[in-house]
Specification:
Layout: H1 19-29, E1 37-43, H2 49-63, E2 66-71, H3 82-88, H4 100-109, H5 121-138, E3 141-146, H6 153-165, E4 171-178, E5 192-194, H7 200-208, H8 216-226, H9 230-242, H10 246-249, H11 257-269, H12 274-286, H13 288-296, H14 307-311, E6 315-318, E7 321-324, H15 327-336, H16 339-352, H17 357-367, H18 373-388, H19 392-404, H20 409-423, H21 429-442, H22 446-462, H23 466-480, H24 485-502, H25 505-521, H26 534-545, H27 549-557, H28 559-585
Parallel strand pairs: 1-4, 1-5, 2-3, 3-4
Antiparallel strand pairs: 6-7
Helix pairs in contact: 1-2, 4-5, 5-6, 8-9, 9-11, 11-15, 12-15, 12-16, 16-17, 17-18, 18-19, 19-20, 20-21, 20-22, 21-22, 22-23, 22-24, 23-24, 23-25, 24-25, 24-26, 25-26, 26-27, 26-28, 27-28
The chain binds adenosine-5'-triphosphate (ATP) and magnesium ion (MG).
Length: about 575
């Protein structure tokens, strides 16, 4: 049985039109695939992505494929690896058969390792690839990742990594995402099926097939307003059936489609009794797993109060729990409630989730209007936890929100800088620069300022602004050299990478000159910067500044350190590559 919000929940409705898309999707799973295939299904809200993916999943099951699925949830989009956990839950026992380090990386990322190791996103990606590959040896596999625009970034990246490396494995991956562009990580030339509005003839057929289809002038109005969007056709037909005069109140100018759909849905539940609206709001605030936990602790919505909402078809309630008829129904209910009522529901839920610190912290944060140190420190703790599991984006998001909720300026600055540093590996240069810029605006503390400037400068290089990046990194190194030598060496290490990638002798010379300055200040006192090994950095800087001569020499003399240096260079390069990807993605 599908869980709340999962892909089979809005069906079965006979699909009208879409012949080409349907046969393309069905062809991927039936006959069973002989090698891996990936297809992105994109389109605006309500266009039919979920309906088409559900059809493909049904076909796949009939053809003998094992179907694994995950549905992105707005409420989980900030939780590291929440999507991956949802996807792999039914096959986690197979993770035990993975090579030791892969199993450790995967279980660590999912927060299931008793003894977590240092996070390694690459190894987590390899583990998912191996797991899918192992499963596909037993029977072909269909992975359906729907509502990918709400999947947390770490899960998306791991899925994208696995997708780009699948080859002869009998694994098909279908990704559904709202909007015009593929989701983050999937912008590197994966095949795409973009759902355009239905043709006028298909829209007419869909509308006429509704249980209480409008006639005459109202029919023409619904067709014009819906503009070929299946969900709008279905929902507008219900509105007209309930209130035939409704079309007269519709504004002539079209709203953006999602807003229009939300307005339609809001009008449908606005007439419900207050109790039902309260119960719906509680369900909308919880969503997915939180709702199940809340229900099991007596804090869920009251099933009896929900009866009128069920009768309207807004939700379905059965022994598997409650699910909204569509993600837009949940969003519309959530956003139409006044803040104070939403906040009260978030607080109630946080209470019920007392043993799940990350979910609890985010619910409390959603309820906070004013700065609140208690909530900020809870978020900071979840950021640390996410970072330990390799969820860089989740860590940065939590730290950013913690900063916003910090009543004391010094805490705000410290957290903004931590958020900027945490965001570096996500490759989102604009985000890093925004966080660093906000930190610089609120602090005069030298170490924080230099760290923020380092992070911002480093991301400049990703957007091709190498000269600006290099001079900013060198000035951080110079300014830090006297009092903060570890930070200075780190900045010069980054500058060396930029100089090396630029291929320009003048850049390498600028780095060489600064090495002299740092050498004169002597090594940083022990313990000043855990995690920074000045010897390795020195070696890396020298090798980058003189790539032919000194690197060979060092490699002969100190092969282990040279390897570590090279590893650092690759790690920094990864940030730059993922930045280029996310910029292409738009
Ligand atoms: N071609 C179609 N024929 C009949 N019904 C359709 C068609 N396309 C979509 N529907 C129905 O329209 C509604 C919205 O479709 P669906 O949920 O698949 O949209 P979506 O693109 O996944 O939207 P979202 O981006 O909000 O997830 C559903 O009730 C679905 O069954
Ligand atoms: Mg959908």
């Amino acid at each position: 049985m599908p869980g709340p919000g999962e892909i089979r929940s809005q069906q079965p409705a006979r699909i009208i039109g879409r012949e080409t898309g349907l046969s393309r999707l069905r062809g991927l799973v039936d006959p069973v695939p002989l090698a891996s295939q990936v297809l992105l299904v994109t389109g605006e809200a309500g266009m039919g992505k979920t309906a088409l993916l559900a059809d493909a999943a049904d076909r796949a099951r009939l053809a003998g494929l094992r179907v694994l699925r995950v549905t992105g949830r707005e409420s989980e989009s900030k939780l590291a690896f929440a999507g991956l956990h949802q996807l792999l839950r039914p096959v986690l026992s197979a993770a035990a058969g993975l090579p030791g380090r892969q199993a450790q990386a995967l279980l660590g990322a999912l927060g299931l390792a008793a003894d977590p190791v240092a996070p390694d996103p690459l190894l987590t990606g390899v583990a998912v690839l191996s797991l899918l590959s192992d499963l596909s040896e037993r029977s072909p596999v269909l992975v359906v990742a729907d509502d990918a625009h709400w999947l947390d970034r770490s899960s998306l990246e791991v899925l994208a990594f696995a997708s780009s490396r699948l080859d002869a494995e009998r694994v098909v991956l279908l990704v559904g995402a709202r909007g015009q562009a593929p989701p983050a990580g999937f912008d590197r030339g994966f095949p795409e099926l973009h759902l355009e509005p239905l043709s006028a003839a298909d829209a007419g057929r869909l509308l006429d097939g509704q249980p209480r289809a409008p006639r005459g002038r109202a029919r023409a109005q619904v067709l014009a307003q819906a503009a070929g969007n299946p969900m709008a056709l279905i929902e507008l037909a219900k509105v007209i059936a309930d209130d035939p005069a409704a079309s007269r109140r519709w504004a002539a100018e079209p709203l953006p489609l999602t807003d229009r759909l939300a307005a339609i849905l809001t009008s449908r539940f606005a007439g419900l009794p207050e109790q039902a609206q309260g119960a719906l709001l509680r369900a909308a605030v919880a969503d997915g797993p939180d709702l199940r936990v809340a229900a099991s602790r007596g804090a869920g919505p009251d099933a009896r109060a929900l009866v009128p909402a069920e009768q309207l078809g807004l939700v379905k309630v059965d022994r598997t729990g409650l699910r909204f008829s569509h993600p837009l129904v949940r969003s519309a209910i959530y956003h139409s409630a006044p803040f104070a009522r939403r906040a009260a529901a978030h607080r109630e839920l946080a209470e019920a989730l007392h043993d799940q610190p990350d979910r609890r912290a985010w619910h409390l944060a959603a309820a906070a209007l004013e700065p609140d140190e208690h909530v900020a420190s809870l978020l900071e703790a979840t950021a640390d936890q996410a970072q330990r599991r390799g969820g860089a984006a989740a860590a940065a998001l939590a730290m950013e929100r913690a900063a916003e909720l910090s009543p004391v300026r010094a805490d705000q600055a410290r957290r903004l800088v931590a958020a900027a540093s945490a965001a570096v590996p996500t490759g989102q240069g604009d985000w890093v620069q925004d966080l660093a810029g906000r930190a610089l605006a609120v602090t005069a503390e030298p170490e924080l300022r230099l760290t923020a400037r380092h992070d911002a400068a480093w991301t400049l290089a990703w957007s091709g602004r190498r000269t600006a990046a290099l001079s900013a990194l060198i000035s951080v190194a110079e300014e830090a050299s006297r009092d903060l030598p570890a930070l200075a060496w780190n900045a010069l290490g980054s500058a060396a990478t930029v100089a090396y990638q630029s291929g320009m002798p003048a850049s390498r010379q600028a780095v060489s000159r600064t090495v002299g300055l740092l050498e004169r200040q002597g090594p940083p006192p022990p313990g000043q910067a855990p995690g920074i090994d000045v010897n390795v950095l020195r070696l890396w800087i020298r090798a980058s500044a003189d790539p032919i001569g000194s690197r060979n020499q060092h490699q002969r003399r100190e092969p282990d350190r040279a390897r570590v240096g090279l590893h650092r260079h690759r790690a920094l390069g990864r940030g730059a590559r993922s930045c280029r990807r996310s910029r292409r993605h738009g």
